[in-house]
Write a structure and sequence with these properties.
Elements lengths: L1 H4 L4 H10 L10 E3 L2 E13 L8 E7 L7 E2 L3 E8 L8 E3 L21 E7 L4 E6 L13 E7 L8 E12 L5 E2 L9 E6 L6 E4 L4 E8 L6 E5 L5 E5 L2 E7 L4 E4 L4 E7 L7 E7 L4 E9 L31 E7 L21 E2 L4 E8 L5 E5 L4 E4 L6 E6 L1 E4 L4 E7 L4 E9 L7 E7 L1
Parallel strand pairs: 2-5, 4-9, 10-14, 13-21, 22-24, 23-31
Antiparallel strand pairs: 1-2, 2-3, 5-7, 6-8, 8-9, 10-11, 10-12, 14-19, 15-18, 15-20, 16-17, 16-19, 20-21, 24-29, 25-28, 25-30, 26-27, 26-29, 30-31
């Protein structure tokens, strides 16, 4: 039944990216030296993936119980203690303009038993994803992701603000889970939402929820559909977008993509609305919105919400005088290296002066979709004729085999920044290059 309701294939998933997303935020924040501080531990852990059976061992990114979120303008002090038997590198998706925090380019991997402290200025409000996966390919256990929420400096009219972190796992017959970068063979794919299997999310009539959808899957492009509800996208990859309704109520997300959406609870009291996930092969229920029998929160639904407050990125980009660079993805081009082989002194893919617009032509020469992730800056996805761009900023993009997509960024922040690419196959390696803004 689910597949008849929600029919997609791999090509449809990737194409949807151009047309367009309850482990809450990262753990409790303490105050230290006038700034919020956060202690994280990389250590062995478990997750319940198979009801009625033993928990599955994983490697985790742990901290105190979640409660308090951050605000735009905060300086966050993060301390990471590595209690794993391998080196670790903390990577935050969506973080612009903090060159001292850039993993591998500015920070060496954290050795077992060591700890490090970073101070990160939070220039932008939005939904961020933090993980230790940069060095995770082929390791003994998979690594989960965590959400980091930075609230707007102005109030946003929603009744509830909820993270919806989607992760995939490949479980062997013996109950252990496999890290990516390895042939999954006879493993079973499983999905969790905020670390849970098919959770129920209660709602009240005419309640407005802000869902922060995060694709924390290792390699998969996915689509998420909430049956019977309009889904209004208000932010993509940590930055506000011109609000728009998701086509058919479905959101398409590449690995690492974050989409904030407003959803008004209008289903009949006592009913349940399935939330479906499509991975290009089949649709499956992953959670439910359950309409409470309590009285409505208000008599009528709220009017359409205005755009979120601006994060201050430029309204226009100078494409005429842009630096233009061609980058080849897929097919294992020699210029891209695995994280373990990356050297901070490596020749960059390009150099540019601060303040200049850069247009990148990303050509996928592989035979399956390729995911590109840019560190340090966000970009606009250009129209085919370079005569405009989509009404949102991105830091992650999936590109179909044989296709070329053009993106444009305003190189505002000086530093050495990473670029990541990987094919949408569990066994595919994560590959890196860097670029330099002077």
């Amino acid at each position: 039944m689910a597949d008849r309701i929600f029919r997609l294939d791999r090509r449809g998933l990737v194409a949807g990216l151009g047309a367009a997303v309850l482990s809450p935020a990262l753990p409790r924040i303490a105050a230290a030296q006038g700034r919020p501080s956060l202690m994280l531990q990389a250590k062995a852990g478990v997750i319940a993936l198979r009801p009625g059976e033993a928990n599955t061992p994983i490697w985790s990114l742990l901290g105190p119980a979640p409660d308090i979120r951050l605000k735009r303008g905060d300086e966050l002090e993060i301390t990471l203690a590595n209690e794993l038997p391998v080196a670790a590198a903390l990577n935050c998706h969506g973080l612009d303009g903090v060159p001292a925090a850039e993993p591998l380019a500015a920070r060496v991997p954290l050795l077992p038993g060591a700890r490090e402290t970073l101070v990160i200025p939070l220039r932008h409000a939005g939904t961020f994803m933090c993980d230790l996966r940069l060095l995770g390919d082929g390791q003994a256990r998979p690594l989960p992701a965590r959400a980091l929420v930075v609230s707007e400096s102005e109030p946003v009219a929603v009744d509830r603000d909820q993270v919806f972190l989607i992760e995939d796992w490949r479980v062997k017959p013996d109950g252990t889970a496999m890290a990516p970068g390895i042939d999954p063979k006879d493993t079973i794919p499983l999905y969790t939402i905020n670390g849970l299997i098919t959770p129920d999310i209660p709602t009240r009539s005419n309640e407005r929820l802000r869902f922060r959808f995060i694709n924390g899957c290792q390699r998969s492009v996915i689509a998420v559909k909430i049956e019977g509800h309009d889904v209004r996208v208000v932010a993509v990859d940590s930055l506000p977008a011109e609000p728009f309704l998701a086509h058919g109520g479905a959101l398409v997300l590449a690995p690492g993509t974050r989409i904030d959406a407003f959803i008004d609870a209008t289903a009949p009291q006592g009913s349940a609305s399935p939330i479906l996930l499509h991975d290009g092969r089949e649709a499956r229920p992953i959670a439910r919105l359950v309409a409470s029998r309590e009285p409505p929160l208000r008599d009528v639904a709220l009017p359409a919400a205005p755009p979120l407050p601006s994060n201050g990125l430029p309204n226009r980009l100078d494409l005429k005088n842009a630096l233009r660079v061609d980058l080849t993805l897929g097919g294992s081009p020699a210029e891209w290296v695995t994280p373990g082989s990356f050297a901070s002194s490596a020749a960059p893919a390009f150099r540019t002066k601060a303040g200049r617009t850069v247009v990148l032509a990303l050509s996928n020469r592989g035979d399956i979709a390729e995911v590109y992730h840019l560190h340090g800056h966000h970009f606009r996805l250009l129209d085919r004729l370079d005569d405009g761009w989509k009404p949102f900023w991105l830091d992650t993009l999936a590109i179909e085999p044989g296709q070329t997509q053009r993106i444009a960024l305003s190189a505002e922040y000086a530093g050495r920044w990473l670029m990541e690419t990987m094919a949408t196959s569990w066994a595919a390696p994560r590959l890196l290059r860097c670029y330099v803004v002077e």
